[in-house]
């Protein structure tokens, strides 16, 4: 599983983010209004990447991926929805495997349940680490601290 991202530097994409008080905004606002970028997601030969010039809300994706991973760990199906987009990724556990599909590509992939859960945890950790380094004011944000606690990270 390859999951990576590039944050946009386009002023149009950054417009809402610049208006947001990153230290005080709640996690939902940060997820929906900030940190637009492009996502690379390749799983078992299938490509679920979305490259739109900054249209993927990266923090939102990271939180959704982690949350769906927790559902998968409990044996439940889940859906990763992309903020502001109609695109969705569907995840269905079956035994120790997880089947991944989407509504925007015909690709289907399979990984172990453990790989999927670990992927969501690792990606959220990487995104939080990167965002806090780029935007130090996030260190005092309660929502960011809460998300960090989900993955055992002290922000």
Q: Which structural class is indicated by helix and strand composition?
A: alpha+beta
CA radius of gyration is 15 Å
Low-pLDDT ranges: none
Specify the biggest β-sheet. 4 strands, antiparallel
Overall tally of structural domains:
1
Helix fraction bin: 40-55%
Principal-axis shape:
globular
**Mean pLDDT score:** 96
Which CATH architecture is right? 2-Layer Sandwich
Summarize the structure.
The protein is an alpha+beta fold. The chain contains five helices and eight strands, in the order βααβββαββββαα.
Describe this structure as you would to a colleague.
41% of the residues lie in helices and 25% in strands. Helix 2 crosses helix 3 and helix 3 runs antiparallel to helix 4. The radius of gyration is 15 Å and the shape is globular. It has five helices and eight strands, in the order E-H-H-E-E-E-H-E-E-E-E-H-H. The protein has a single domain, classed as Secreted effector protein pipB2 fold, CATH 3.30.2450. The longest helix has 22 residues.
Keywords:
single chain; about 160 residues; alpha+beta; Secreted effector protein pipB2 fold; four-stranded antiparallel sheet; 5 helices; globular
